[in-house]
Amino acid sequence: MNSYRLCGRLVIFPVVAGIVAGALLLLTGCGALSAGSHSGPVIGVGNSSLNFGAVPIGGSKTMLDTITNNTTAAVTISEIQGSAAGFRVTGITAPLTLMAGQTASFNVQFKPSGTGDPATTISFVGPNAQAYASLSATATAVTPPTLSPSTSALAFGSTQVGTTHTSVVTLENSGTTDITVTQATMSGAGFSMSNIPVPLTISAGTSTSVPITFAPPSVGTFSGSVTLAVTANQVNGTAGFSFTGSGVVAGILLPTLSSVTFGSIQVGGKTSKSVTLTNNGGTPVTISQVIPSAAGFQVSGLTAQTTIAPNQSIVFNTTFAPTKTGTASGALSIVSDASNSPLSISLSGVALAAGALSPGPSSANFGNVTVGNNQTAPMTVTNTGGETVTLSSATVSGAGFTVTGLAAPVTLSTGQAAAFNVVFTPSAAGATSGALTINSNASNATLSIPLSGTGVALAQLGSNPASISFGNVQTGTSQSLNATLTNSGGTSLTILTATASGAGFSVSGLAPSLTLGAGQSTSFTILFSPTARGAASGSVNITSNGANPILSIPLSGTGATPGALTASPTNLAFSGTQVGNSTNLSETLTNTGGSTVAISQVNLTGASFSTSGLSNFPINLTSGQSVTFNVTFTPTSAGTASGSLSVASNAANSPGIALSGTGTASGTLAVSPTSLSFGNVTVGSNAALTGSLTASGASVTISSASSNNGEFVLSGISLPATLTAGQSANFTVTFTPGASGAASASLSLTSNASNSAAVQSALQMTGTGTTPIQHTVDLNWIASTSAVGYNIYRGTTPAGPYTMINTSLNSTTAYADNTVASGQTYYYVTTAVNASSVESGYSNQAQAVVPTP
Known about the structure:
5-stranded mixed sheet; 1 helix; 72 strands; mainly beta; disordered N terminus
């Protein structure tokens, strides 16, 4: 008993060992008890398995259950597990303490969010995570019955009282189970429903049509609704829709004008009046025909098939466009479905003949009118039509034209005329055109009368050129120039006098009282005869009866002295010039006179002299102007030479220029020796020989030298080179054979020596290229103990440095070096290499001298 009580004190809460089918709970005993099971009261639920059946998505279902503490001690439930998949426990919350023998009620609610067969286990757990009791819950989540009407609000619009209007509503089962309509309830006066025999089953994915009829009992607005009770899978629901409609009386058309009077209008014109047509009834009115019954009347803005809603209006136009004179009447008939169809509107109007304007004369030509004067042309305009015409405006176009005596507006009855004047006042010479435009309400509403005239200018005398300049004229001579007088005005003029002023000027060729018509010209002559050197000025004054009574023509000229040539220098002396060469000296001729000098040619004496820089004769030199040219001396033999240069021109003098010069002999050039023999030269090496060039008699310039064989090369002298008389220059020729065999060449020299042709190929060169001899150095040495091979090293200076010349380990004690050059000394050492690839130090050095060649 003591041990049992101790166990009871330790195990405050019974331990649930497991849950079995039927929610039977097994309670384990304490470890201190003897082996074996212990049975007794447990914690249990009233219903350990809850089946909710089918529950629609969006809905919920709740089931009641209990939990009882069947133990002898209080029990605390610290957690309720398993609220998932849409299941949850309500009515109790953890922690919950149940006294011994106490029972608590709770609810389990299932609220699905998607279709399926969810299940869960709800466990009541103690403080140490032991499960006291549990229950299983299962359910089926189904799609709720969904019966969708094709419209939620059906509008019948306006329906005439005494008629009916039926519309169809489609009920569609969009769910996955069949839906049964168990009841259909309708409300609203004037509405009726058919085709709903209840109960009515609508299979999943199908629909049924429900006709709703509206028969308004009176004028006014009516509304109603249909409510449907539906069930599917034992789940109930509702569906429904509403409707509205208005009872109206029939449409009736009323115009604002029952008759339209257009009054008087000209034939060919037109006038319009608007009419408003209103539907004063309760239903739309559709117009089927619009017919004017008389010629000249038209309707726009109102056509067949036009519908006018209740209390709405439409505005249209009636037009009267007569084609002949007289009174016109008729009616506009409007046929529609209105209660007062057809509607007739009377039409009337009077057509009058149009007024017409005729000008007299039809155009105005003013001819020639002097600028500044004016000329008037009287004119009339007459109404030749059958109706009064009102002139609204009269405007004139064209420079110089104006109208007087016609102030708009002017009204002309039939046959009446209006008189007025058109005035032409030209402000400039030349032809002008324009028009008088009269605007009115006549049939020819815009009347245009052409206007023309020519403004002519007053007589005006002008000179071409406007001034006369003679330039330079030598004193004692004369020069004449012509000028032209022109009457640029529009009338004739008479030249009264013509006089010249200014020293040396005179005029001729103008007879007194000479008359020049409009645009006519005459020529005359002015003469300038200067008697003294210097500038002179004056004028020719011509009087006339033109707009410019005195015409003054400025005159100018300069008296000039005759031209004279001065040579600078007056003689040309050429220093010693080598025969065959040339020397140039410049010469300048200057006109020191007062008139232009024309040089026609230059004449030379002396065969060794020539000129350049003078061409395109004659050469004109104005006063103070110069020309420079060259005189060239080219002696053909040694000794002195002389000559002269004379200038032919219109100058007052003819200067002569003395020429002199000395020709000197040319130098000669000698080559020593005249041949070079290089003998045998090994291919790949070279040999050099020297020579000299000497000038005699005079300086010699050597401009170039060349060899006709690239194996012979000249060096040691820089060209071009000038050698004075007796001077020599050394040079070197190097022979470098490129192949074995004999070779030859010649050295060509270009110079200004008199014997230049003789020394062109004065130096001949020969040589023979020989094949180089291949030498071999044979090496041998005493074998080294334990050596498996040897390396051979070579240098060109004693004691190294050395370079290994064998490409692989030499296994013998001998080596032949065939890569040596003639005339070269070499130094050799060897090393021994053992089987471990260890190399010894250098051996003693051996020397080999390779002979030449």
